[in-house]
Design a protein that fits this description.
With 228 residues, the protein is of the alpha/beta class. Strands 6-7-8-3-9-10 form a 6-stranded mixed β-sheet, with helices on both faces. It has a 4-stranded antiparallel β-sheet with strand order 2-1-4-5, with helices on one face. α3 packs across α4 and α3 runs parallel beside α5. The longest helix has 14 residues. Bound molecules: adenosine-5'-triphosphate. Belongs to the ABC transporter superfamily.
Amino acid sequence: MSDTTIVFDGVGHSFGDRRVLDGIDLDLTERRIGIVGANGSGKSTLARMINGLIMPDTGTVTVNGLDVRKNKRKVRRDVGFIFSDPDRQIIMPTVAEDIELSLSRTVKDRTERHTRALSVLSGFGLDGHADQPAHQLSGGQKQLLALASVMVLGPSILVADEPTTMLDLRNSLMLRDVFAGLDEQLVVLSHDLDFVADYDRILVIDGGRVIADDEPSSALTYYRKSMS
Ligand SMILES: Nc1ncnc2c1ncn2[C@@H]1O[C@H](COP(=O)(O)OP(=O)(O)OP(=O)(O)O)[C@@H](O)[C@H]1O
């Protein structure tokens, strides 16, 4: 169990006249939650509602007791979000500067900020890359940098939308290990079923609805069968 909770109550969403999520009722308290489903089934739309990137048309999403619609800024601070393409998140020219930007609100002294950034980089396996241009990092290293920049902000929940899409097997396994070491509640969308196979709970989404919600072996078996 996690100290954090994400609650969907009667949530639905349409893009134009297309209903992409409907009747979503969820109480997510487990530490590690995987979300799987076919392309276009509504996973990203659901995940983006956890930090208010998308608001529900019907129903409410509550994070740690706060209605996302009414508390968007606070919820954004509580929910870190990483995308499959880390280039969308890496803003600054060098690796250390990217972390320093995330630290700028909390650590005012520049020298201390740099020292802290070096220590954060080391924690995410990026020692020795501090002064490197961020765009020169490998795909896996960029994903680690994007993750480090988000985690340094101190979220209590991390939502990751297909974080391994751009990664080879080695980097994907490395990211799985890094995620395994995080204390925060984790919600991971993945087409890589092995990545979430040891999670606490798996949601299977199809046509904008939750069609299975179980521990991994049952839910993933159900999903594999439904896809064949
Ligand atoms: N901004 C948007 N405007 C219009 N339609 C959208 C928008 N975003 C998503 N959709 C549509 O909503 C549906 C659900 O999309 P969503 O991205 O949530 O699916 P997904 O399960 O994450 O898919 P994938 O596995 O391909 O990433 C799709 O039909 C998609 O085309």
